Structures are given as structure tokens and as C-alpha cells.
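A common beginner's mistake is to predict each chain separately and then try to dock the pieces by hand. The better habit, illustrated here, is to supply every component at once so that their relative placement is modeled jointly.
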Amino acid sequence: MAEFGLIERIRARAAHPRDDVVLGIGDDAALLQPPPGMQLVVAMDTLNDGVHFPHGTEAARVGWKALAVNLSDLAAMGAEPAWCTLSLSLPDGDPAWVDGFLDGFLALAGEHRVALVGGDTTRGPLSISVTVLGFVDPGRALRRDGARVGDQVWVSGSLGAAAAALEQWRAGGARDAALGERLDRPRPRVALGRALGGVASACIDVSDGLLADLGHVCAASAVGVLLDIDALPGADRLRRWFGGEAVRTLQVAGGDDYELCFTVPAGADAIARAAAGAAATGVEVTRVGTVVAGQGVQAVDRDGRPWRPERPGHEHFA
Amino acid sequence: MAEFGLIERIRARAAHPRDDVVLGIGDDAALLQPPPGMQLVVAMDTLNDGVHFPHGTEAARVGWKALAVNLSDLAAMGAEPAWCTLSLSLPDGDPAWVDGFLDGFLALAGEHRVALVGGDTTRGPLSISVTVLGFVDPGRALRRDGARVGDQVWVSGSLGAAAAALEQWRAGGARDAALGERLDRPRPRVALGRALGGVASACIDVSDGLLADLGHVCAASAVGVLLDIDALPGADRLRRWFGGEAVRTLQVAGGDDYELCFTVPAGADAIARAAAGAAATGVEVTRVGTVVAGQGVQAVDRDGRPWRPERPGHEHFA
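With all components supplied together, the output reads:
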């Protein structure tokens, strides 16, 4: 199918109606009306075939994930997503694949009232780039550089499920469907991120593995973190399939969790507000550590002994 | 080189200082402060190795072009560019290639005061996605759907040079350096686009070839265009190397021109304002046709005889 046919196919399905879209797909660029007084929040992430998802992954899952990883970045800023653009590089113009991709992409876009307003379709190895745009009240954005000594460290949901599913897929044996769902259909914590705006002192989404991502918070905030390796949520499910050390490594170095890791000032008021915000969004949150003076993340087990993973966090080009 | 090293390398060089960048590269997303009352304009384009540029193209030229094609889309909307995000997929993390790429990318960004505020670096076949963001006064955006019967059709600069350079590169013989420069370093007509805001009735950038792109204007505006094939600017230079029919085909179907094609209401006032706007930006503009009732572009030669190209416009997946 030719490029203009593909664009028309996408345009025909793309419209999540929003009053602030002056002009969507079909011109040289999109025209959008930002709400007055808000800051614009912009993130861009790319998924490549065989790198970010196994070759042959169902198109709908690729579509879902391509938007989810971007919405997760906006969640980590405490932002409200509004619009996105999509660039699809396809080895051929297979309309059935594009339809499947849109099934997943637009299902998630609809859940978050995000309008697909533009982008590009080109020929090339399968690759998907997405840019998401959203808003945040000035001063309420969650950044990486606000953690202070004494703050508590929390994470949402559970850690390690996606990495565990990938291990099972690679091993080729039995697979846990619930873990697989976490790999294929991560749920960006958008509502939680917004609830934490003005409450959490720092926030990041866990995409490269908790140790690596928390390390970014430490570096940006010029602090250290003491991480309780045995407090990480989600270990029970993983222990059905993996040994204790493997579980710990999956949880801190696995990547693809798309949970939020955030810090909260230690005062009772801030903690109560963070807990109330999380409760209102229905997302479980777990305290996993403390911000300390120093640099980097030190993991300790339940007996206070230092713990190191078998392998470092996921990193491209490693 | 590892991903975080690459990001740091990009961040260290990226900063075009702008007061409206609250938070640039280095967090989960960029934080930006849009100017009050303006509409946001967003375009996203991808270049793939071997599809949009020949494999082995110098990194600096790839960098320049990756931003140029996006700025050209903003130019076609009459918008002022402000910020961009960049996603680089690299087969390996070669820092020398990235440095060269940034040389070209940031040179053009600096010319237009565009700040690189975020993006992604991933492993994969060489591919570059860029999203540009800019502004336009409400009601002054140049769209494709505003052409009316009787309007004049104009183009900026010259047509066919980039396609001619590609032909010469493919043929492997003598090459015209000035034509090659047009292929490698297209100059987005940002100032001209802004000057045409509120004056031109429709506008598009010429990226897929004049016939194809003018066809989009016709479709969006529900009009036809009578195109004077012998009025197209830039033919003289091409005739040094190519025969008459080949010149015409390069000019209307070649692609990669990144000129603006725009329509102007026929009244003397509008034409004078468009001409004055163009003159102020130092860009030559040439009248090449007339908007007529009907649909699609009909090309005619200087004697009024219908003319058809040997091949249709450039199209992916064709």
C-alpha cells in the first residue's frame, strides 16, 4: 500500500476528539491550542524491532507499547497527556499490520484521551517513534533533581514482571500469562503521576531497571539511596518461577516495568498526601528505601547486608 | 559507547539558550513554556539510511537534513520554530558519527534559534526521527485547504536541483557541486513562510515533487491547478546536464526540493504583499500557475499543450 493510502488509513481511525486540536493529520504540521498558563511537557521514545520487542510480536502489542512507554515518561513528570505524533518505519506497507498496530495504539490513546495529530510513514526496518505532548501546572512537575537526604523512596505496582516474562520467552518453556501481560501491555501510571504533583520531591519511571533509574535520580539530586532489596513489591509472583537471587536481579535490573519510583519528604503530612493520592488512583505503592548523603544506590538485604546484582541494569549499546 | 554516555555527549552540545526551556535534555521529558495566546505547531519526520539518504552519507549532512525537512514543514505552516526532539537509532554507538551528526544538526538549529530539548538514543538500523515544535498566531497558519479558484500559484527558489544531484550520484559520473549542495543541505524557507502568514491562501512544502504536493493542495482545497511547466524556476542550471524532458520531470516529480509552493488571491494588494514579504526575506519567488475549478494538477507547456511526466511523483512503498 502506498504512503498516502497508509496516512489516510491512519487518519480515518486516529480521531480522538479534542477541542484543542485545531488541525490534525493531513497538513504539513498539526495546529494545537495549549491551555493558558500551563507548561508544555514533551517526551519522545522509539521502539525498534528485535531490540525493544521480539521480532514477530503481535502488531497490536507493539502499538500499545509504543505509546505506553511515552505516556510513562509523561506520568513520571506528573503531566496530563493530550496529543501525540507517530512515525512508522515499515519494511512494507502491509495494511493488516498497520490496522493491528492501530488497534493497540489507539486503545491506549483512547483510555488517556490522547489525540494522534500527525507524524510520518516511511519505508525502512520496522521502527516506531512516538512524541507525546501534555501539560503540567508551573511548579508542579516531578523532576529527577528534587530528592533530599531523609526523603523516603517509594515505587508503584510491582517490579520484575516484564523482565521475567522476557526470560521465559527466551527460555522457550512454560510462560506465566500475567507476567507476559506486563511485558506486552504496560500500564503507564499517568493518574498516579498527576496525584504526586506537588507532593513527591522527585520521580522517574522505571524503564531501564530500578538500580539504573534510581541512579539517575541520585545523580541529578546529588544524593545516595539506601535500597531495601527485600522490600520490592511483586517478588512473590516471581518466586513461583525463579530462585531468590534471580528474583532480586529481575526486580532491580530487569527493565520494562514502567512503574514510578518517587521520593517523598519524610514529614507525616507529605507521606499522608502521597498515600492518599496513590489510594485515589487505585495503584499500590510500597516504600523501598531512604535517601541518604553520598552518591549512588546501595542495596541492602533484610538483614542490612550489602547486596549486588549478578548483572548491571539494562543499557543499550552495552 | 553506552547510551547514557551518548545522551550526555548530546546534552553537552545541545544547548541553544532559550528562556522558554524550563528543563531540557536529562529528565523523563522536557518542560517548556509556550508563549501566551499562540497556537502550537508540531511536525515529525523520519529519515532512514538508504531510503532518504544514500548509505554512507557524511554524518553532518544527515544531521542537517534531518532537521531541515522538519523545519520545512513548519515553514509551510508559516510557523516560528522554537524547540525540537531527536530520536537516534544507531547500529553501534560510534561517538565520532554522533559528533558529526550533531555538527550538521546543531548548525541548522542555531541558525533558526531552535533548542534541542529531548529525545531518545537506541540501538537499531540507522534512523533519525525529529519532532519540531513552533508557534503561529491564531488564524495566520498556512494550510493546504485555503486555495480558491482564481488564486495564483507561486513557488520559492528553484525546483529539481536535489533530484538532479541524486541522478548524478546514481549515474556515478560528473557531479554539479551546486546541485549536490541542494540535496545535502536544503535550506528550509522558514522566514518566507512566516512572511506569507495572513497573505497566502494555501501553502505546502515541496518534498515529494511539485505535482504530488500541489496535488495535496488541490485535494484539500477541492480545486484544480493549471501549471505552466515551462515557468518552473531553476531549469537553466539543470539544462547544463540534462535534456529538456528530463529537466521537466526532475522539476515536477523529483522531490527533496524543500521549497514552498503557495497560492495567493489574485487581487493586486495580496500579490503585492506576498511579493514584498518574499523580497524582505531575500528569497526569489516565481509564479507557476493558476487555481482553476476541477480537481488535480494539469501541466501545460508554453504553447498551452498538455504535458505529462515520464514518471509519477516520488512515493514510498510505490
